[in-house]
Amino acid sequence: MPQLTWLVTGCSSGIGETFVQRILARGDKVVATTRGDVSRIAALADAGAKTYSLDVTATESEIKGIVAKILEGGPIDVIVNNAGYIEAGLAEETSYDHYQAQFATNFFGVVKTTQAVLPHFRENKSGTVVFIGSSGGIGGEPGAGPYCSTKFALEGFHDCMKQEVAHLNIKSVIFELGFFRTKIMHPDNVLKFRSEPIADYDGIRDLTSQFVDGINGNQPGDPKKAVEIMIDVVKGEGVAAGKEMPDRLPLGPDCLATMRKRCVGNLTTCNEWEDVIRSTNVEG
């Protein structure tokens, strides 16, 4: 496959940083972005990446302006919407402001950045949009309402956009990640239970907090393995050679179990309730 140029958001650590490292190792070009000063990703610049400051919560015009500057350096073939964080909170306790903040980064930031790149893809009649989803976008978990809500929203955006741009030779894929050993679950990165607690939820809040603290540094997934597979899928190489690009791909046995449980559960409901479901049309 010819050399590609990738634009990756949220590259200061974790999956984004690994993406840039592995893209360069595969011989492709990459534009790495981060919120704030680009000195945060100086090591990626030293490795050969072009670096830009891009805050996905900025205004539409600001994001479009930065993308325009990036495109002055040459075309982009792939955008990886990676920037995001976790807001842990219970559904009733989490304030509306904290829901808004979570959506501003994890969903609306993705929408704005994707919309800034799509005109370029439309003009070239090619391009690939990569969304970093989550097992939390397949099945919700206690204490993860704000985060899971954004990932569920991302699923819908991907499904709609994929159909709308297909005739323009623009591809879209969402990778559903389970628990991978990055810093996303570090106490400095997870915003936990920032609203007033409700006594009725003390038990479930404590269990959720213990889980978050315990999983940090103990996630089963290897981010390098996941990123190599994602690059293979985009390029149609390695494990993806000869295969059609999937709409969505779970990565990690834990995410596979979550997806399989949801799919089997939905199918069971359809089968058990089919007569009732079909009985709702207007007579005649």
UniProtKB/TrEMBL annotation:
Q: Which Pfam families match?
A: adh_short (PF00106)
- Native organism: Massariosphaeria phaeospora
What is the name of the protein in this document? Answer: Putative hydroxybutyrate dehydrogenase
InterPro entries listed in its UniProt record: NAD(P)-bd_dom_sf, SDR_fam, SDR_oxidoreductase
**Any one Gene Ontology molecular-function term assigned to this protein's record:** oxidoreductase activity
Q: Which family does it belong to?
A: Belongs to the short-chain dehydrogenases/reductases (SDR) family.
Q: Which domain of life is it from?
A: Eukaryota
> Does the keyword field hold Transferase?
no
UniProt lineage: Eukaryota, Fungi, Dikarya, Ascomycota, Pezizomycotina
Give the keywords, sorted: Oxidoreductase
List the Gene3D superfamilies hit by this protein, alphabetically: NAD(P)-binding Rossmann-like Domain (3.40.50.720)
